[in-house]
Design a protein that fits this description.
The complex is a heterodimer of chains A (159) and B (180).
Chain A (H helix, E strand, L loop, with lengths): L2 H12 L7 H9 L1 H18 L10 H46 L1 H23 L3 H26 L1
Helix pairs in contact in A: 1-3, 2-3
Chain B lengths: L2 H12 L3 H22 L3 H18 L9 H20 L5 H8 L11 H13 L3 H10 L6 H8 L3 H20 L4
Helix pairs in contact in B: 1-2, 2-3, 2-4, 2-7, 3-4, 4-8, 7-9, 8-9
Classes of the chains: A mainly alpha (159), B mainly alpha (180).
Chain lengths: 159, 180
Amino acid sequence: MFCDEALDAVDAIAAGDLTPDGRVAAHLATCPNCAAALVSARALEQLLARRPVPAAPPQFTSRTLVRVRRARWRSEQFLDLGFNVAIGAIVIAVVAGIWMLVHRSGLAAVGNDAVDLFGRGLVTFARRVTPSLPLYAGATALLVTALGIWWWAERDAAL
Amino acid sequence: MDHGNERELVERCRQGDDGAFEELVDRYKDLVFALIARTVPDRSRAEDIAQDVFLRVHRGLPYFRGEARLSTWIYRIVANVCLQDQTRARGTVSLDDERGAQLAPSASDRQFSDFELRDRLEKAIARLPANYRLLIAAHYLKGVQYEDLAEALQLPLGTVKTQLYRAKHQLRRLLETDFR
């Protein structure tokens, strides 16, 4: 057996993963270099096993949770921003599309006539309604009072 | 922690239960911190990285399928985060470490105290490649078996053992030469 072969097995033997068979055991008994390597490997094994285990700092959990919440908040903000930007872009695209459609199809001229007609109708309606305005105001006040009483009675019943 | 409890905890976390996630952090913080602190010498940096790990755990929980144990999955995240951190920090050897190595006592004075011995060991471990350092850190933590390491690192069991033996061999050489 060559030293290389024994030296390859030294760490496994020291870790307890390999039991030296007759050949390896015989070589380790006769070769001072390999025997020294085994002693050194065993010493290292003990040293590593005794290595202190660092404990997490006392405030670790709370600090971690703060960081997690902050990250979550940021990602939600990012998502919200993205959503709002997307909605804005869609609204602009729809308005621009309608505008282009109206202008290209000649509907704009028809639209102007419709706006004129609607405006004139609104003025006529206002002229007719103005004399009866106190009557309408009185009716609205009565309705609001009735609704208020009903809401108050419902609230009391719920309590 | 048994598999049923683990699943229940994961499920509660997935449903957005902050208390459940706090419980998860409490359960695994020592394992995660110990692993990281053994590979990253700076304690505040280690805490930062450990928090990063839990941040990733939080983000990844909706995709955790429960095929592996939760501890194994968390260990895998630790390994990835540590290796990424080492890659970023590669090539930056602390001057203090170098000076420490040069000022190490001569061969004629080898009666080191336990503290000095540990210091030499830590310096030698710091010189190992990142994957070896992680293996050494994890294997000598209570309860972390070869099988857990193999599953977490997605490596065959034999490869994990071989890499550990190589790491220890390299460590012995460092201790016998550079850090005498």
